[in-house]
Write a structure and sequence with these properties.
β6 and β7 form a beta hairpin. The chain has a five-stranded antiparallel β-sheet with strand order 1-2-5-6-7, with no helix packed on it. About 20% of the residues lie in helices and about 30% in strands. It is built from two helices and seven strands. The chain has about 140 residues and is α+β, with helices and mostly antiparallel strands.
């Protein structure tokens, strides 16, 4: 086999491997609707998600209401970190997120031992609001 043909076959093999790998990665990626998933919290199955976008060394404060003027819930349950799972009971609007003042959705979350409070949805991995609004009710 000549050198030019070997280079072409080598490049084609590398390209096919890259496309196969990319296709596998794309097919295993979860859709936006999978950002909210069912889980067990306080003896019930409810929608859940994870905390994301919190700066290293920082935490997400769980508050008694949908705004930064509300105090934290019980101290042992008031701090959430990236990757923590929370149950979502409902959504409402309130103050804009610190990192995006125009994003005003807040979730009432369960954090364990029947403790619940509010966090800005900007810091949760819920996906697109058009999708999660179909799965999560609006707070009364």
């Amino acid at each position: 086999m000549n050198t030019a043909r070997r280079k072409i076959l080598g490049a084609a093999t590398a390209l096919a491997t890259a496309l196969l790998t990319a296709g596998t990665l794309l097919s295993t990626a979860t859709p936006a609707s999978a950002d909210v998933y069912p889980c067990r919290m306080s003896d019930s199955t409810i929608p859940c998600t994870t905390v994301t976008g919190i700066d290293p060394g920082s935490w997400l404060q769980v508050r008694t209401g949908p705004g930064y003027g509300y105090g934290p819930i019980a101290e042992a349950y008031s701090r959430l970190y990236n990757g923590n799972q929370v149950g979502i009971t409902c959504w409402t609007t309130g103050d804009g997120a610190v990192d995006n003042p125009n994003y005003r959705y807040w979730m009432r979350v369960e954090v364990g031992n029947s403790y619940s409070g509010y966090v800005n949805d900007w810091y949760l991995n819920t996906g697109n609001s058009a999708v999660w609004k179909q799965q999560i009710r609006q707070c009364p």
